[in-house]
Amino acid sequence: MNDMATQILKHKKSIVIAFTIATIISIFTQFFVSINYNMVDYLPEDAPSMEATDLMEQEFPGTIPNTRVMIHNVTVAEALAFKEELATVSGVTDVTWLDDAVDIKTPIEMMDEDMVESYYKDNHALFSFSIEEGKEVETTDAIYELIGDDNAMSGEALDTATSQKMAGTESMYAAALLVPIIILILVISTNSWMEPVFFLTAIGVSILINLGTNIFLGEISFVTQSVAPILQLAVSLDYAIFLLHSFQDYRSQGKVPEEAMKLAMKRSFPAIAASASTTFFGFIALTFMNFEIGSDLGVNLVKGILLSFVSVMVFLPALTLLFYKWIDKTQHRPFLSSFGKIERKIVKIKIPSLIIVFLLIIPAFLAQSQTNFTYGIGEQPENTRAGSDIVTIEDTFGKYTPMVLLVPNGDVAKEEELVQELENLNHVTSVLSYVNTVDPVIPPEYLDESITEQFYSNNYSRIILQTNAGTEGDEAFGLVETVQNTVANYYEEDTHILGESVTLYDIKNTVEKDNTVVNLLTVITIAIVLFVTFKSISIPVVLLLTIQSAVWINLSIPYFTDTSLVFVGYLIISTVQLAATVDYGILLTEEYTKNRKNMTALEAIKKTINEKIFSIAISASILSSVGFILWMTSSNPIVGSIGLLLGRGALLAFIMVVCFLPAMLLVFDKWVDKTTWKANFYKEK
Q1: 675 and 541 both lie in a single domain
Q2: Sign of the C-alpha dihedral, residues 138, 134, 167, 205?
Q3: pLDDT (tens digit, 9 = 90+) per residue, 287-304?
Q4: The domain that contains 87 carries what CATH number?
Q5: Pair (476, 611) in one structural domain
Q6: 317 neighbors 5 (Cβ within 8 angstroms)
Q7: Whole-Å CA distances, 259 to 192, 252, 395
Q8: What is the mean pLDDT of residues 246-269?
Q9: What are the backbone angles phi and psi of residue 44, rounded to the nearest 5°?
Q10: How many independent structural domains does the chain possess?
Q11: Concatenated DSSP letters for 244-260?
Q12: Is the residue at 227 inside a domain?
């Protein structure tokens, strides 16, 4: 470490210049990284809905409708004219209305009422169509211009367009709120106006380089774009604080700046390495998710932690020695340096703390797995145009989710029986197929290809279902399973089903499997890091129980408040909270074991709390601020849920570390002593 520190300080100007150049290049390259807003793309390629989608694209020219438009107060003739206008909008394909389901020349009164009301009700017309992937924003803008303010639009493509528009604006808004708050917290916790600038510069450089190096990945998900930079800032800012505080301590002892920095690097390296390792391995666990949106975020966070570590251990020492006089010239009196005699109060409540937590652990563990989860991007807020349009359309026509079946062609009689059974299923409002739209008696080869191509390919027959069970939930997923079972009664194999509800059903099955794998990997890898760090069997158990209890309590709150939780957010935060907040426990436990060598357990815990609670509070307040600001500024339900869980989780972890962890260390002090290699705890004579 001494040799490395000597080389870094010897070439400090070159290092600062190199990092500056890398940062400038990264600022430009980040604009060439594509952002993917389609969650479907992150499903495994062997997921049934993905295989079905690929097959349909090969066999049929049309696509599944992903957007709906409702026009008020129109006649049938006016609706047909509007349908033609809508079809001319760039990016719009496969517009479907009543005339595609029945012979429009037949008087409406003689048609099946349920069929008609799926498309035309109380003089309101509802059109379904597809918007090409990648054209969501410009196409939905053009449609809004066409339909005006009085009519409504909804659908998956509109959700994607809305998320895409808001992502950049909301990230800027979050940063504008967050940076001043973090600066304020850092100013309160330091003795110099310039120290926070050094902290933020070191981590800011690593964040920008991380964003720029994403160009080698080609594209990242919208979740990664929204969450990763702010999360990287929150979890790695401690590294810079550790180093600069050590540097200032040695300078206050009369060391010259170069010597003070060498000693600071040597002293802070183990703490920073341990902190970075737990976070690193926690984020590594995300990369094992089959649902690759977790892997995408995990890769970026792992890369970000490595870059933050390098920036703090290489760039920050060089930068500090070049400009440390700025810190000296901007000294101010401490605004807040202690919490009074809080350690006495914490020690007094050790038994109540243990009792309360042990009473909560089992209910929290059970409740967090029973929460009502959602698996998609979520619904738009009702105070937005997109959100109010959804309500308007559903109030008139109900929920609508198209579903497509691909079955082997050639047996018209079997297909006709299947369609009749599908039409009688609950939540199926209409079925479009050759046998009930054209005529099963007429051989397809006798008709024009433009009529048959939407129903038949060389190998498959396509059947389109319109359903009102919604895109997800018990009813929607139950309908998917019912349709699968119904089709299986007629065809033994080579059948495929696709649609938004089918995709979300696959996402549900995928992430539920991921949940077990990711959580186990996180706990095991962090336990190994803690075992190596403390050379103890008991300390990893105590620390993991402390932080994991905070995670369970955090994730159980939606169950007890009867609110739904986005499963992707739940899965990510169960890893991120553990990986990011276990550092608080490490910091307190390291100091306790050091103090315990020279004093009794009670004296050691009091001294430790008095010395470390301020640092832990600063870290927790920064991480909590990051989470709550993400929650407040993001209209995207996935990003918002991650923010809320992160903000609340950081506060819970802080409470657990300063109340429950000291109680555990006191009560199980003898056990910790016996199960820790060379503990050398002080023994009273």
Answers
A1: yes
A2: negative
A3: 888 888 888 988 999 999
A4: 3.30.70
A5: no
A6: yes
A7: 21, 12, 72
A8: 87
A9: -60, 145
A10: 4
A11: HHHHHHHHHTT--HHHH
A12: yes
Alpha-carbon span 294 to 285, nearest angstrom:
9
DSSP symbol at 536: B
pLDDT band, residue 406 (cuts 50/70/90): very high
Backbone angles phi, psi at 406, to 5 degrees: -115, 120
**Same-domain pairing of 83 and 143:** yes
Among 593, 581, 596, 595, which Cα is nearest to 546's? 581
The range of the structural domain enclosing residue 153 comes to 63-161
Residue carrying structure tokens 């409002």? 429
CA dihedral 491, 494, 497, 498 (to 10 degrees): -170
DSSP 439: -
270 shares its domain with 153? no
What is the distance between the alpha carbons of residues 127 and 89, in angstroms, rounded to a whole number?
Answer: 14
Q: How is residue 612 written in tokens?
A: 């470390």
- Determine how many CB atoms are found less than 10 A away from the CB of residue 597: 11
| Pair 401, 325 in one domain | no
Q: Amino acid letter at 73? A: N
- Stated pTM of the model: 0.81
From CA 140, how far away is CA 71, in angstroms rounded?
Answer: 15
The reply to whether 353 and 328 lie within a common domain is: no
What is the reported pLDDT for 339? Answer: 59
Q: Residue 98 has what DSSP assignment?
A: G
- Cα–Cα distance, 6 to 665 (Å, whole number): 39
Is 512 inside any structural domain?
Answer: no
Within a domain: 171? no
Last-in-domain residue among 141, 161, 181: 161
Percent of the chain exceeding pLDDT 70 equals 95
In 17-151, beta strands by DSSP E: 34-36, 67-71, 92-96, 120-121, 124-131
Q: Distance between CA atoms of 495 and 406, rounded to whole angstroms?
A: 6
For residues 592 and 609, state if they share a domain.
yes
Number of H helices, E strands in the chain: 26, 13
Q: DSSP state, 470? A: -
Q: What CATH number does the domain containing 685 carry?
A: 1.20.1640.10
> Which residues make Cβ contacts (< 8 Å) with residue 207, sequence separation at least 6?
229, 232, 233, 304, 307, 308
Residue 477 maps to which CATH number?
Answer: 3.30.70.920
**Is residue 336 very low, low, confident or very high in pLDDT (cuts 50, 70, 90)?**
low
Are 357 and 450 members of one domain? no
Question: Are the CB atoms for 581 and 550 separated by under 8 Å?
Answer: yes
Q: Is 182 within a domain?
A: no
